[in-house]
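R.M. (postdoc): so does anyone remember the format we settled on? I'll just put the structure tokens first.
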């Protein structure tokens, strides 16, 4: 089943109904999340009150859309447009090799700047990457990697090189089973990134059998590489709040070859 047909994605994009002052529940919360994403922040409490109404008024005016106190489909479509663009990427992707496609998709996600909304590891972007799940325990870096790999595989008309997972250790296990795991020492001391090609996956190594963060790696060498990664921040945290581009040390990581 194509990603855009998955129930957990459809739930994020479906119109929650003609909500207005006094409404409450998941639909109101989803509206508040997206208002926050667009800079029209209001408390994300699932209660549609005067503050939510005013935030929608400001958003609709900025988008030159009609709004008369009741959420309509046009305003909702404008709120969720960034995610709809990401979900529709396979239909628009260029013809490239699989590793090049992975990097291209990762760059398109980065351009939309997915962030947490409504609390740690919460919000529509987290739910998309984590197949409907969210919450403090839902570290989503591996979910981001797995989602992007699947989008690239969908465009390429092939299976992803590894199945994907919500956990870094499981990604490493899958890579080893498929002969795609590349130890960081071999990359740092034997010619840099040549074996990884246009794009690979990095795994932040805690021990030889424990990895604590992941993302995409490219434009690297023996000392450093560039990344696009989820659940991080400007400090390179393994439990941040956004999709971001980082620079990382090669020797501190292991890798997964996608080519």
């Amino acid at each position: 089943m194509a990603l855009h047909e998955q129930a957990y994605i459809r739930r994020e994009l479906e119109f929650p109904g003609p909500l207005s002052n006094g409404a409450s529940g998941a639909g109101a919360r989803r509206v508040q999340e997206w208002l926050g994403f667009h800079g029209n922040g209001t408390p994300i409490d699932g209660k549609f009150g005067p503050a939510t109404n005013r935030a929608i008024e400001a958003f609709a005016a900025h988008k030159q859309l009609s709004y008369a106190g009741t959420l309509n489909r046009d305003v909702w479509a404008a709120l969720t447009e960034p995610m709809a663009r990401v979900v529709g990427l396979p239909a628009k992707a260029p013809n490239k090799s699989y590793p090049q496609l992975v990097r291209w998709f990762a760059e398109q996600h980065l351009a939309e700047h997915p962030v947490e909304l409504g609390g740690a590891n919460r919000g529509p972007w987290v739910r998309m990457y984590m197949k409907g799940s969210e919450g403090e325990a839902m570290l989503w870096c591996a979910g981001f990697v797995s989602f992007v790999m699947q989008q690239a595989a969908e465009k390429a008309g092939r299976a992803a090189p590894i199945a994907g997972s919500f956990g870094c250790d499981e990604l490493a296990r899958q890579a080893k089973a498929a002969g795609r795991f590349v130890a960081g020492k071999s990359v740092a001391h034997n010619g840099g990134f040549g074996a990884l090609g246009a794009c690979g996956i990095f795994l932040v190594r805690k021990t030889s059998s424990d990895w604590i963060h992941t993302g995409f790696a490219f434009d690297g060498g023996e000392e450093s590489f560039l990344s696009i990664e989820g659940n991080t921040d400007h400090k390179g945290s393994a439990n941040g709040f956004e999709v971001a581009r980082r620079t990382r040390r090669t020797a501190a990581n292991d890798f997964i070859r996608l080519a």
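R.M.: ...and that's the designed sequence above, right after the tokens. Also worth knowing: Residues 88-257 form one domain. The chain has two domains: 3-79, 88-257.
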